[in-house]
Amino acid sequence: MDKQDNQLRRTLGFGSAIAIVIGTIIGSGIFFKQASVLASAENSTLAIAAWIFGGIITLAAGLTIAEIGAQMPYTGGLYVYLEKLYGRTLGFLAGWMQVIVYGPAIIAAVAGFTAILVCNFLGISTTWRIPIALLLIILVGLINFFDNQVGAAFSIITTIGKMIPIFAIIIFGLFWGQNDALNQTIGEVHQTGGNFGVAVLATLFAYDGWILIANLGGEMKNPQKVLPKVIILGITAVLLIYALITIGIFRFIPANLINKLGENTTAYLATKAFGQIGGKLLTLGIIISMLGTLNGKIITFPRIVYAMAKRQDLPFSRQLAYLTPKGKSPVVATISIIALAGMMLTCFDPDRLSDLCVFTIYCFYVLAFFGIFKLRKENPVRPFSTPLYPFVPILAIAGGLFVIVSELLNDPAGVVLFIGIVVVGLPVFAWVRRKNKQVIVQELDEN
């Protein structure tokens, strides 16, 4: 096969890219994390503040990565950034973390949350959650076996579709809600160790996914200009939407009831506000919204597998780097991510999984944030410069460290497990490099 024929196509424009950013971020988190954020914050004012603070941390992170990404507009995102900043080993671990831990885990978490809503919509027992979640992952994965424009079109459709339930919740809550959104205190706390830090950590799962568009740098038209714009505009839009949704929910549902409803808060609001039929339609809109998020994850993570396989950085790299002849889709990489997500889904609760996802990715985000200072010294001329430098990168770093420490204190056992899976990447990397050297020596001997 000609080398040029085995390349991803640069077909994604600004519209597709911004739809993927917003569609990937807005999904299960804002609908399912309201109760857990409130339970940790213990009152509605701090809960709203947690959503806003989480958005500010994310925006600072996005502005920092936008400068880095504009200088490295290649397929692979964080994997490429850390390799170019710190060398092959750290770059490999960033990629390994995303394809073995973070990617499958976040896909599993989103699918698990979506399946809960599907069970409510169909009126069936939540014991069907795992089979339904597995089916959703497979169906969305099949969409991404075709040309990348098919997945991008699905993102655009679901992003437009998800605006209907979002604006319905915002408008109904703000104008027909009877409660004061501020200063509501819950009487019963379900969890121990809850605090503002844990509340912010819970919101960051809802904001996460913004960096995944960087994995499509090799398929984007004019990525040096488009990438910073879509990251910044996408995160800003999501921050405003999340703050308004949260205020709308608190206006319509008392804090104590949200605390009791837990993951069923959104389904309750939909039925209470719009009746049985209207509630069903609104719930369906939210399900479509979450499918768009799932699609965004399944579009982007196989591109990391593909980028690593092209570099011969993974076992079975030849197979994982395969692209379909017509659509240039990394189908084997997609299948591998789907399989790992299915394993994660059967082993973990979605809520706990979502927090561990955020912790794992932020360990590597912080390293990337520090990289902006290195690049500033090396490259005085840049396609994009982070505004308010160095304050914005410092805020991003502080926010990242805040996430890491909060999760270490909140779930040390889960942290040790996920770090252990990441560290396993070191002997895998050593084995792959040794094998690649043997292949090179063999080819030289044959010639």
From TrEMBL:
Entry GO terms, CC? membrane
InterPro entries recorded: AA/rel_permease1 (IPR002293), AminoAcid_Transporter (IPR050598)
Supply one GO molecular-function term. L-amino acid transmembrane transporter activity
Cite the entry's keywords alphabetically: Membrane, Transmembrane, Transmembrane helix
Where is this chain primarily localised?
membrane
Quote the subcellular location field of this record.
Membrane
Q: What transmembrane ranges does the database entry give?
A: 12-32, 44-69, 90-116, 128-146, 153-176, 196-218, 230-253, 281-306, 327-346, 358-375, 387-406, 412-432
Membrane topology of this protein: Multi-pass membrane protein
PANTHER family given in the database record: AMINO ACID TRANSPORTER, SOBREMESA, ISOFORM B
Name of the molecule in the record: Serine/threonine exchanger SteT
Organism, as annotated? Lactobacillus corticis
Lineage per the UniProt record? Bacteria, Bacillati, Bacillota, Bacilli, Lactobacillales
Gene coding for it: steT
